[in-house]
Amino acid sequence: MKLNIVTYPDKKLKEISQKVERFDAELHDLLDSMYPLMMETNGIGLAAIQVGVAKRVMILNIPDDEDIQSVEYLIEMINPVITHKNGETVYQEGCLSVPTFYEDITRYETIGVNFQDRDGNTKSLEADGLLSIAIQHELDHLEGVLFIDKLPYSRRKKFEKEYKKMLKEKKNSK
Ligand code: Y12
Ligand code: CO
Questions:
Q1: Is 113 helix (H, G, I), strand (E, B) or coil?
Q2: What is the CATH number of the domain that holds 85?
Q3: CA within 20 to 30 Å of 48's CA: 4, 67, 117, 120, which one?
Q4: With contact defined as beta carbons under 8 Å apart, do 27 and 118 qualify?
Q5: Is the confidence at residue 54, as pLDDT, over 90?
Q6: Minimum-distance ligand to the CA of 103?
Q7: Does 174 have pLDDT greater than 90?
Q8: In this model, does residue 153 exceed pLDDT 90?
């Protein structure tokens, strides 16, 4: 399956993703195509809506302590739901759908998540650190929410101005 990253301000990113009911070859093909795209683009988390597919699917691949990203750390989450959350943490987030921009965003520090794997088996996970932040970021995508939607009004205005400028410069350099 040939996939491309959908970028802001594409309206597709505002869509609410739908629950996955069929754990079939089509789902497996989607997951198998999302992974190389995430690796090629230096991502650590990707939701299906970011490739234009409105399904409650996300993949995560957090680098280890030596900053190595390996397929053995790949997590595929289908129909994820947060079961509990604790604390608060701030991290400078980036998103493949909002290229070149990073903003400080407040998230829960630790979370519990229930989800299904690619075959529909129920799983649960306790997450902290970067994994916890990444899961919350990708969960927002499933609700049509981007990290820039969480910015205070004045910061968002500044972002919109800078982003527009970036897009214009990109267009003119082609
Ligand atoms: C912490 C905060 C946010 C997340 C969500 C997942 N975010 C990403 O995977 C962001 C990736 C990213 C990659 C970039 O590099 C390239 O595109 C080559 C990037 O740089 C540019 O756009 C130039 C920006 C973001 C997880 C954990
Ligand atoms: Co994102």
A1: strand
A2: 3.90.45.10
A3: 67
A4: yes
A5: yes
A6: 1
A7: no
A8: yes
